Amino acid sequence: MPYIEDWSLERKREIARDIVSNDFISYAALDEEKVVGFIGLKKQLVDGYMILDMMHVSAECRGKGIGRKLFEIGKQEAKKRGAKALYISACSSEETIAFYTAMGAKLTDSPIKEMADEEPFDLQMTCIV
């Protein structure tokens, strides 16, 4: 299914609170003073995986390498912290799956049960760091 960017202001604020909390390692891509992309990684490893919890690039900024750069930073953080791979519970949109596949992610044979149960339509993927 195609991805539709329809976050409410309250949802944006909720995500902002999460990614600046002590539970996350976060990076933002800025265009002047406007956030046009971000990545949020959970600090706590799960079974040797670093969870890529949130990643987004604004529609008008896609195709400019921002997502690729954020993803590479995520891989570097995971490696630095001793993770064997990034774990991604990816929404099932074609664009999302194509992006993560282009970054080297693959469907996992051993999904993290809690994550798969929480988002049953997501594809569970990993990317070796």
Features:
Aminopeptidase; 31% strand; alpha+beta; 6 strands; 129 residues; single chain; 4 helices
Describe, in plain words, how this protein is organized in 3D:
The protein has a single domain (9-128), classed as Aminopeptidase, CATH 3.40.630. The protein is globular and about 40 Å long. It has four helices and six strands; from the N terminus they run H-E-E-E-H-E-H-E-H-E. It has a six-stranded mixed sheet, sandwiched between helices. By secondary structure, the protein is α+β, with helices and mostly antiparallel strands. It is 32% helix and 31% strand. A hairpin with a 2-residue loop joins strand 1 and strand 2 (34-42).
